[in-house]
Amino acid sequence: MIIKHLKNKLRVVSGIKHFFLFAKAVFGAVILLRGLFPNAFADEVVADPHRFDDAIAAFEAADKASMPEPGKVLFLGSSSIRRWDTAKAFPEIDSINRGFGGSQTSDCIYFFDRIVSPYKPKVIVLYEGDNDIGAGKSTEQVVKDFETFANQVRVKLPGTKVVYIPIKPSIKRASLWNKMETVNQEVQTLAANSNALYYADIATPMLATGSPPDESLFAKDGLHLSDKGNALWASVIGPVIEEALEE
Residue 74 phi/psi, 5° resolution? Predict the structure, then answer.
């Protein structure tokens, strides 16, 4: 009886030992896979689009009062668009400004049917990605979100062109520039292989004097553009919009 009890106890101890050895092996494998494929295990950063409910409702109220005619150029994106007097910068272009500060690419995707497709724009000028990287999103996620947005345009607005303004180098987010540049390069490649995507390279002239860029291009916060910065953008983006409109 005692011998049988001891044997059973040994089996339990042996089972526990094997369990821990197995768990250790699994844990080691997970660590190894994380090292080899870090992006596969990366948690996707999700921004709550409802923080912009009031801003989107205000756009819709303006549309209800006076709906823009179809075929215009739609400026869409974060505060770099919202703060920019695009009508003044491009007086020769019939345009709509739907910038909402703090937005990310995912927000443009979420509100697409409310502040993009209703206007049936001929060209969309998009500035997003800056806040995406600032919020901790991976370069892969930002590029993927842009591809999702571009696909929405292709499916819901066939014939509409997208002019992508690359993520700008800035003083405030200088430490994030490598990631931002990676996103820009990926999107530039996408644009080079598409008849519907255009890349307006504002980053190169902004870095003409080195990195980080000249302070005179920015407002006091080192993030948003000064009048000089906006003028530089207009000189680059204007010809690209004209090209997109002509094709």
Answer: -100, 120
* CA-to-CA dists, residue 44 to 26, 40, 132, angstroms: 24, 10, 11
Shared domain check, 87 and 26: no
**Whether residue 188 is found in the same domain as residue 75:** yes
Which of 241, 246, 199, 227 is CA-nearest to residue 75? 241
Q: Are residues 107 and 28 in the same domain?
A: no
* pLDDT, tens digit, 9 for 90 and up, residues 152-199: 999 999 999 999 999 999 999 999 999 999 999 999 999 999 999 999
- Alpha-carbon distance of 201 to 233, in angstroms, equals 9
Indicate the number of domains in the chain: 2
Shared domain for 33 and 117, answered yes or no, is: no
Chain mean pLDDT for the chain: 88
